[in-house]
Design brief:
The complex is a heterodimer of chains A (114) and B (113).
Chain A: E1 3-5, E2 10-14, E3 19-21, E4 24-26, E5 31-38, E6 44-50, E7 56-58, E8 64-68, E9 73-78, E10 87-95, E11 102-104, E12 108-113
Parallel strand pairs in A: 2-12
Antiparallel strand pairs in A: 1-4, 3-9, 5-6, 5-10, 7-8, 8-9, 10-11, 10-12
Chain B: E1 5-7, E2 10-13, E3 19-24, E4 31-37, E5 44-50, E6 53-56, E7 65-68, E8 75-79, E9 88-95, E10 103-104, E11 108-112
Parallel strand pairs in B: 2-11
Antiparallel strand pairs in B: 1-3, 3-8, 4-5, 4-9, 5-6, 7-8, 9-10, 9-11
The chains are: A mainly beta (114), B mainly beta (113).
Chain lengths: 114, 113
């Protein structure tokens, strides 16, 4: 069965600094990988996905993520954080070869300090 | 384009009562998902439909939860009878296909007392 780990419950970063939100996954086959963001009092929103091809994926709001098969990781990054990036971030995975189950990680709360 | 619609937005019931949630996905989206999000946790997939057929309901507590998607469009999720541990936000999402990004509705916050 697939699983997702987000090792940090909380990440704090100063505005203008680079940010990284970590995600590692476990699947039997090859993964589809996603990042979603949840702003306060708003629904989950899609940020980016990795299906196949280039390991560096670019998404909405200047975010990007790098797929690393050997480390089974899909860390979310942004070169310069904004206060408005403060939100709850979820990594998610689906095994493209086995079953349909879509699994979300527990989430990482990002706080960008002015 | 209209987003995923859910109703009601909030519901408070007593344990052992029943409750139903409704979801209308984005037009043309074949895949529909129901998730349970308990406070402080990530969403947990309850059931996934492809058109009007179920493709995954392995985590749906079938003794009390049921869901249907008649005509492959809107969907209802029912809990009968509710337990205290069912208190959560119930999210509906839709996508064009199973490898595509999901679009989420605002959710229904259920409180069971």
């Amino acid at each position: 069965a697939q699983s997702v780990a987000q090792p940090e419950d909380q990440v704090n970063v100063a505005e203008g600094n680079p940010l990284t939100v970590k995600c590692t996954y476990s699947v039997s086959g090859n993964p589809y990988l996603f990042w979603y963001v949840q702003y306060p009092n708003r629904g989950l929103q899609f940020l980016l996905k990795y299906i196949t091809g280039d390991n560096l994926v670019k998404g909405s709001y200047g975010f990007e993520a790098e797929f690393n098969k050997s480390q089974t990781s899909f860390h979310l990054k942004k070169p310069s954080a904004l206060v408005s990036d403060s939100a709850l971030y979820f990594c998610a995975v689906r095994d493209r070869n086995y079953g349909q189950n879509f699994v979300f990680g527990p989430g990482t709360r990002l706080s960008v300090l002015p | 384009e209209a987003g995923v619609a859910q109703s009601p937005r909030y519901k408070i019931i007593e344990k052992r009562q029943s409750v139903a949630f409704w979801c209308n996905p984005i037009s043309g989206h074949a895949t529909l998902y129901w998730y349970q999000q308990i406070l402080g946790q990530g969403p947990k997939l309850l059931i996934q439909f492809q058109n009007n057929g179920v493709v995954d309901d392995s985590q749906l507590p079938k003794d009390r939860f049921s869901a249907e998607r008649l005509k492959g469009v809107d969907s209802t999720l029912k809990i009968q009878p509710a337990k205290l541990e069912d208190s959560a936000v119930y999210l509906c999402a839709s996508s064009e296909g199973t490898s595509d990004e999901q679009y989420f509705g605002p959710g229904t916050r259920l409180t069971v007392t």
